[in-house]
Amino acid sequence: MPLLALGILRYISATSNIIHDCDEVFNYWEPVHFLLYKTGFQTWEYSSEFALRSYLYLIFHNLVGLPASLLFGEEKVRVFYAVRFFLGLLSVVADAVLVVALSRKYGNRIASYALATLCLTSGCFFASTSFLPSSFSMYAMSLASGLFLLEKHGLAVSVATVGVILGWPFSVLAFLPVTIYSLSRNFKKVFLSGALTSLVLLALSLLVDHQYYGRWVSSVFNLLLYNIAGGGESHLYGTEGPLFYLWNGFNNFNLCFVLALLFPPHKEERFLYPVYPLICVAASAVIESFPSLFESEYKTTLKDLAANVAKFVRPIVLSVILGSVLCIGSEWHRFPSSFFVPEFVGEVRWIDDGFDGLLPMPFNSTLGGTSAAPSYFNNKNKASEEQYLRDLDACTFLVELQLSRPYPTRGNDLSKWEVIAALPYLDRELSPSFYRSFFIPHLWHEKNVFGMYKLLKRIGR
């Protein structure tokens, strides 16, 4: 039952889940695209000068990506979804172990509630097939928690170690309760299990990073140094206060999030992903205590899926039909990855729409590819002169979001551009937060404001 239910929902997520964060595109999908096809965008974190990102994490996903690229050839979209299905499979296995463990330890009722929350809360739906280290740590959290409940403490700590080192190092805090309690039960066996796993993974990470960065470096250490020990200025990319996490927790889990907070005892929503399974378990424990009160809770937990899909899927749809030189201005952060750009597109270029931060640049094979340390990258989020295409006449196609604003857009000049495709797009600033966050039939369309997401072609090309 858990495998079937989770399998259906994760399949739907793999095929319809949107890309929620440009970090997922530029720090994971784009490097994988470069490893497979020798083209793709590089962020400063992948410059060998800084080396903040682990190639071991990418290689793990290429266990599916490489065979898929050989099988499907130039049909890159299929490769994208092959990796997505792999992510969904990992989520299914990990969550199924957790549900089975809950059933054996605490009974079928709480296991059923946990299964319902894991399947139907939008937070788990989104995170389960996101190509992010925090999602990988979420899989590890489900699996480690399940193994812990099954009293396989050594394996639980080994899985937790994989989630921290191969996934997201900062998730170590979430794994501490399982690790400490497991050590208290059988210190020697659990310690050896965790230590051996750590040594193997750190050695593999070191070797793989040396292969790709061209020098001996630990991306795990560099990431920790940059974010914790003052090795960089991560605050440049934004920070959020506690209310941000509380609001998004409620938005993704509804009443379940409130229930999880009732259970006894940085800067972006994806950082919450590792604890999503624990939120589901905590909420299920409270629901199990009051079964008659919450028996219909799960009928509306997917309320914001349609709103978010309508809001963000437009760039993916448009990117499939592009050609020649594609230019993108302020919409760079919604670029859905090179997997959706056909082979006949010569290149994708950014144009200056006023953004003064540092943008990703194509991997430069002449400078060494993954081992290059381009001079135009920096860790201060300062724009490079080389990141923009200055000759706008070179643009064959233009992707542009046109909103009701008192300033003109390039696409408004109909003497130079013709509209090839246009789709409605939710205007976040002018739409009431309640109606854009919660999908209410009829009112969602009536109360929200929409702009037009357009693909334009230069006249005469």
Tell me what you see in this structure.
With 461 residues, the chain is of the alpha/beta class. The protein has 2 domains: 2-299, no CATH class; 306-458, no CATH class. It has 18 helices and 7 strands. The chain has a 5-stranded mixed β-sheet with strand order 3-2-5-7-6. Helix 4 (76-106) packs parallel to helix 7, helix 5 (108-120) crosses helix 14 and helix 13 crosses helix 14. The radius of gyration is 23 Å and the shape is globular.
Q: How many structural domains can be distinguished in the coordinates? A: 2
- Report the end-to-end length measured between terminal Cα atoms: 56 Å
* Number of strand elements: 7
Number of contiguous helices: 18
Strand content: 5-15%
* Assembly context of the chains: single chain
In short:
By secondary structure, this protein is an alpha/beta fold. The protein is built from 18 helices and seven strands.
